[in-house]
Amino acid sequence: GYQRRVREWTRITMLGMLRVRLGSLPTTLRPRYSSSLSLSKNPDFIKPSGPVCLVILDGVGLGADDDGNAWSRARTPFLDKVFFDSEVKGAVAAHGTAVGMPSDADMGNSEVGHNALGAGRVFDQGAKLVQNAMDSKSFQGDTWEWLMDGCGSSTDGTFHLIGLWSDGNVHSHVNHAYSMMEAAIQQGITKIRLHVLLDGRDVAETSALEYIEPLEEQIAAWNKGGADVAIASGGGRMVTTMDRYNANWPVVERGWNAHVHGIADHSFHSATEAISTLRGSGADLITDQNLPSFVITDQATGEPVGKIQDGDSVVLFNFRGDRAQQLSQAFESKEGSFSEFDRGVSPDVRYAGIMQYDGDTNLPEHYIVTPPAIDCTVGEMIAHSGLKQLAISETQKYGHVTYFFNGNRNEKFSQDNELYVEIPSYTEPENERPWMRAAEVTDACLEHLDTFKPDFVRLNYPNGDMVGHTGNLRAAIMAMEAVDLCCERLVRGITARGGVALITADHGNADEMVTKKKDGTLVKGDSPEGFKPLTSHTLAPVPVALIGEEATRIFEWDDSLPNPGLANLTASCLNLLGFNTPSFYLPGVLRLKK
User: How confident is the model at residue 482, as a pLDDT?
Assistant: First the structure.
């Protein structure tokens, strides 16, 4: 019962706390990257008669079994049995250096998690690449100089920075923006405007002022020295600018109107005033991610202080691509080729991303830091082998099983042998429909197993992550129960068709829904359960289980493997398909039974 489960969680968690560190391996043992896409078969690895399915329970980590853990509080008999009683099970790291982040203090996220699952290796990710560029000043290259030339003293242009204003290090980091503003001022740029998107999702849910107040103090110091820096607009990330996968273009439209035209339903004389006024209290409290769009106006004239106009330079300092692509499209699409919303007069500006967000479409054309070049993904290698693949999720995570899993590539590797299926997500907040589209994703997957007959499937249930980000513990419990029901039906359908399921997660979230003190004590607060909600990802390892008689008869968990991480699961998918591990992939977590 309860004590057995706690002991098992502790054992698996300790296993999963190990990290993958390529840099710590001896040079002779580091994977060699190769351009070869050929896979060799292993006669001892018997491919099942049905599909090999990688099932990703987004945001479901192995956290402490306490009152803040939505999984442990939920009734999830199937997931409990799968992850704690299966013959072949284990845990892997899903954060920090195991997924290419700067340090093990950095949370994992869905982008880097799916990159690792698809690549079979660990690549330095956006956060680390950008931080290295800031530390070395290498960001001041050709694109930077192009931006500075556009707003120098001879042009009288303004340098605009748009991005998520927090240190969550999932989509952005405030230090990167500070570094760029410092550099611009040193180069003589006199006018800088900031368009701040408020987080409350990768950091504490009402922490915006902890980031805005120091910014306003720094702005005052810069301006005292002769600069002209100001916050021009802002809003919560879920209602302003940061939509993804074309799910809700009005979010981008609100951001465009606020940033570009200085038009919003709310105007204030400072960002602090905006946040304090819009926050509300009690039942009417609005968390940072949902604060309405606002503009800052001049006290004397009442005019917006920072419209984006012809001749200005604009940089989007979010390094993660999924919630940066749509705003980039709005800036870069030519007149007559953009129909998502009425942009009004689109200013002629120099626009760049801190990174390129879509290599397939060269979006944006100009970028400051070169993104990781991820080649030979498992999807590409399987396509090259002639096998059929199905990628499926609902809108909120569709891009993760396609774009991110494919190494930041939107296009298919094979038009004939790949099927990408997107189930439209609800547009209502996830805490109001915590079951999301899990049932529809399950229905569609089982249908395509019969009609398309894929050899390899990757499927994502977004509930643990998307509902976890709302901070609503009761909804997260319901989300885990919905995933339990659907995952059981899916896995039974897979095995009934002669297939196998490798079930895991990409990072933690629903496993820790309550803020904790350093000693692990849950912080009291205003939630219905009496706690202070936590909306961010966690540092927890994630569970792994292999289900399917054909596979479990041949394979067992390789407990001799040092430092297992998400990227080690990729080779196991190939092994289950009957292939050897490519020489440049990390070894898999499965081994032949002795």
Answer: 98
Asked if residue 587 has a cis previous peptide bond (ω within 30° of 0), the answer is no
Q: Which two tokens stand for residue 263?
A: 């038009």
Long-range contacts of 275-284 (CB under 8 A, 24+ apart): 275/198, 275/208, 275/209, 275/212, 276/209, 279/206, 282/526
The answer to whether the beta carbons of residues 502 and 546 sit under 8 Å apart is yes
User: What pLDDT score was predicted for residue 6?
Assistant: 39
Q: Which of 107, 170, 122 is nearest to 539 (CA)?
A: 107
Give the mean pLDDT per block of 10 residues along the chain (594 residues): 42 38 30 66 95 98 96 98 97 95 88 96 93 96 95 82 96 97 95 97 95 98 97 98 93 98 98 96 90 97 97 96 94 94 96 88 92 91 97 96 93 96 95 97 98 98 96 97 98 98 97 93 91 93 96 96 95 98 97 93
Q: What is the pLDDT of residue 7?
A: 44
110 is catalytic: yes
Give yes or no for a cis peptide into 533 (omega within 30° of 0). Answer: no
| Token code pair at residue 171 | 């989509």
**Residue of 240, 244, 211 whose CA lies nearest to 320:** 244
The full DSSP string for 220-231 is HHHHHTT-EEEE
Q: What angle is formed at CA 466 by the lines to CA 486 and CA 130, rounded to 5 degrees?
A: 130
**Cα separations (Å) of 478 from 76, 79, 390, 435, 464?**
10, 14, 28, 7, 10
Instruction: Kindly state the tokens that stand for 165.
Output: 């204003």
Q: pLDDT at position 361, please?
A: 79
In this prediction, residue 134 carries a pLDDT of 97
The token pair that represents 143 in the structure block: 């694109």
CB 316 within 8 A of CB 162: yes
Distance CA 15, CA 316 (A): 39
Q: Is residue 568 within 8 Å of 552, Cβ to Cβ?
A: no
pLDDT at residue 19, as a whole number: 32
Residues 255 and 240: beta-carbon distance below 8 Å: yes
For 37-94, give the DSSP string: ----B-TTS---SS-EEEEEETT-----SSTT-HHHHS--HHHHHHHHH-SEEEEEB-
Determine the pLDDT at residue 30: 31
Q: Which of 38, 49, 110, 414 is catalytic?
A: 110
Would you say 590 and 577 are in contact if contact means Cβ atoms under 8 Å apart? no
Specify burial of residue 480 (Cβ count, 10 A radius: 0-12, 13-18, 19+): buried
The torsion angles phi and psi of 93, rounded to 5 degrees, stand at -75, 145
The most distant pair of C-alpha atoms in the chain lies apart, rounded to whole Å, by: 80
pLDDT of 370 reads 87
Element (H, E) at 502: strand 500-504
What counts of helices (H) and strands (E) characterise the chain? 18, 17
